[in-house]
Each structure stands twice: as structure tokens, then as C-alpha cells.
């Protein structure tokens, strides 16, 4: 097994990444497809996440211990397709089956595939991966699950299904964020220093109840499902502060989602300060700040089916 750390990157984000989702996007705990406004806001977050973290995703995929370039890939919980397209870029001979529970996200992915001229290399499948009966996903050489397994009610069962799905010698890649990224300097905002960290602390209590598998060590779960671990890597993301509009929009969308889960538990002074940051027309708006960055970690586990 290997552990390594990629250097931090900063600079202009690109348009491929992987942050895929099986039941729900990773920064919310519930999703009803009929709520089109919510689906749109989730899709926007996924697209921004993909753009901001594109370089890190490309580095991560280039590290994967594939023995030969995969020809058939399954993206489990594909969201709006960030992982799908990053994998297609890396493996130009591959076809990807993109699986998600959200019809809206899959439609967005298909539109992107057409815009890229890649519609012939992508198949979309709408499915709830917590159900016992999975659709036919073929016999892939590589299964990619980024920020999706922790949403499942029964990830151990899903891992066993993936094990049986893979071709002999095939690879499963699990990618998980170490919580939601931080955007503000630690001493910000000026009127309530440390606000963001307090929001995250409150949010962690919420997620411990609603998303109990977030932050799990997937290594033992992978071996219990019959996989042999072939590598583990932690990627440190530290995109330096800038006035980048994309990072501003990413921070705004992310902190709006956090607010939904912590509004009932934050002290009134903190909630008021958070609302001042989220007021795009106000003088304290996040979008007016020049000191926003992105700080987080992602861990990837590569696990192989024997054979």
C-alpha cells in the first residue's frame, strides 16, 4: 500500500473533475428529484466543484494503479459528470456507464457529452444504488465511486455488488472528501472571527446523525467485501486566496448548503454573521472578498478484485 501527498495547486481551474454522487450530492443529506430548484442548485455546486478541483482530479486519476488502460468504466453516483469526463480524458479508448439516482443530473451529463462530442462513449443509467436489484452495468475494468458511497444506507452491500460486477483483476477507486472545503481565512469574518469553523463543527454533528458513513476509513470495508487494497493516497487541496469568481460562487453555494443544516443550532450572532456573508447585495458579501481560497483533503483508495 502506498500513501502519498500531491503538492497543492493554485491557478485557473479547468472543467473536469470527479465528485460523483449516488443517492444525493455530497454536500446535502436529502434529495427529491421533483424539487427542480434544489436539483439545479445541487447541480451548480457539482459543476463548480468539478471546475475548481479539476487539476487535483486529473492528478488523482493519473496515479491510479491500472494494469492496462480500462475499456469499460462505471462511474457510480456520477452527479453531473465530472468524474465521467475526467476519466474519458485520461482513457481515450474507454466507454463510461454513468449511474445516478437523479434524472436531472443525468440529463445535464448527457448535454455535456453531446457538447463535447462524446455522446457515443457515455451511457447513462438512473438507479438507486441502495436497492438490492441493480441494473445491468456490464463487466467493467474500472469502477469509480467519488463522494458517493458515504450516502448509501448499506455501503457494505454495495461494495460486494461492485466486487462481483468487476472483471477479474479489475479496479475499484473510492474517493472521499475530508468534510466540506474551507473557504475563508481563519480570522474571518472581521465581526465574528472563526465563524466558518464553528459552522463546520455544528454541521459535523448534523452529518453524524444523517450521513453516518461520511469520513469512514474505507480500507477495512473494502477488504471485508473481498477486495485486495492496491493503494491509498491523501491529496491535500490548498488553492490560494484570490478574487476568482468561480471560487466565490463555489464558496457561496457551499456555505448556503451548510446554513440549511446548522441554522437551528448556531448562536444568533453567528447566524446573523453568516447571513451577512451570504447576502450577495450586501457590503459583507462573500462575492466582494478577495481572500477566498479552497482548503480540504481527498483520500483515494484503490482496490482490486482478485483474478
Briefly say what this structure is.
About 35% of the residues lie in helices and about 20% in strands.
Could you characterize the architecture of this molecule?
This protein is α/β, with parallel strands linked by helices and 307 residues long. It has one domain: Vaccinia Virus protein VP39 (Rossmann fold, 3-Layer(aba) Sandwich). The chain is 36% helix and 18% strand. It has helices at 36-52, 54-63, 82-90, 103-115, 155-165, 195-210, 218-224, 245-262, 268-278; strands at residues 72-76, 95-100, 122-126, 142-146, 171-177, 228-242, 292-304. Strand 4 (142-146), helix 5 (155-165) and strand 5 (171-177) form a beta-alpha-beta unit. The chain is globular.
Q: Any descriptors?
A:
307 residues, alpha/beta, Rossmann fold, seven-stranded mixed beta sheet, 7 strands, globular, disordered N terminus
